[in-house]
Records
---
Amino acid sequence: MPTDGDLEAFGEDVARFCEERKWSQFHTPKDLAIGLTTEASELLELFRFLDEQDIQARLGDQAFAEEVEDEIGDVVFFLVRLCQVLDLDPVEVAQAKLAKSREKYPADEYEGDNWTVLE
Ligand SMILES: [Mg+2]
């Protein structure tokens, strides 16, 4: 069901998808975190051994771009599902973390500094 980019509506669709298949029994936080990491690794694998120029060239190929989109879709699915199981709002937790990062890395001190890793 199209959700027009609405994450809350997408979450409802994900819940319905899982209920229809009776998959909730498999959705422990640990297993969903494993799924999330596995899908993120599948996304990373698409870029493995490619430099930035190669990646940009490959993204012009529709089949490759679709593979990237599919893996991003898998990552978002697992992230949304994990948040459901943990009773968290994904946007709220991301905003809270962004606020912490703003405080930890003031723009006037970290502008242009990409050596800093967000933890
Ligand atoms: Mg996948």
Note: The chain has a mean pLDDT of 94.
---
Amino acid sequence: MSPRCRCLQAVCPSDRRKARRVHGVTACVLAEVACIAIIWLYGRKPGRVYTTAQEKPEDWWEVEALYDLCFAPGRTLLSSYRLREDVPPVAPLCRVARDSTNTLVAAIRYWPVRVGGSRVLLLGPVAVHPVTQGAGLGGLLIRETLHAAGELGYERVLLVGDPPYYNRFGFFHLAGVEMPPPTNPDRVQGLELIPGAWDGVHGEVEKVTMTEEAVDTFVEERNESWEDGATEA
Ligand SMILES: CC(C)(COP(=O)(O)OP(=O)(O)OC[C@H]1O[C@@H](n2cnc3c(N)ncnc32)[C@H](O)[C@@H]1OP(=O)(O)O)[C@@H](O)C(=O)NCCC(=O)NCCS
């Protein structure tokens, strides 16, 4: 039964033909139009406005709380966290989204790593509050930051995640890239910010330590903020 019929039944318990016979065609058609209008108005959800901004130091624990909420307990035991320990994230690519009440609803972070000596961006964690999932915020943060990464001169991105989700952004399976165990190799994916950026880049994913002089050139002048944005989802 269509919602329209259900609605009509709520107004008049008899079926439509009987209703038209009892109340007249005009009254029924008017009632039907009114019902359709009510359903349309009721079903319209006002667009929610979200604001995205670079993560600030004071956002850190709020973002951690969001990750705790969105991921399974023990998330920090995952191998990717070994690559992040004691390494600052790539600040200009760490973004948060807040709703109109200033509640943090989504966050994304990136870390620098190396694969076979080449510089690579490790995407993640990315999470969207369960109440806000499916509204496009995850995709928005991923696209925004991948674009910014390209603008900042990064060439390739790596992540460990669900291929069906990340394929839409252009990620593909990286067969020759080994994350520290235990990692399901099928979930290791890469994206090229310039064509061919992953060609010939393979081997173990290595942590970038701050004692490495090269790190200075890796993060260079890139830790400058970029403009905040507002979106509707
Ligand atoms: C995964 C996540 C970041 C996606 O963000 P989101 O804002 O909910 O997603 P979007 O609105 O951008 O995209 C929604 C689409 O992605 C799909 N999708 C979401 N998570 C998915 C997943 N794990 N695998 C496959 N598809 C997924 C939805 O089915 C939907 O598909 P559709 O467009 O065909 O309807 C979010 O759901 C989340 O935080 N999940 C929990 C934490 C997590 O798993 N993080 C990723 C770690 S790899």
Note: The two ends are 31 Å apart (CA to CA).
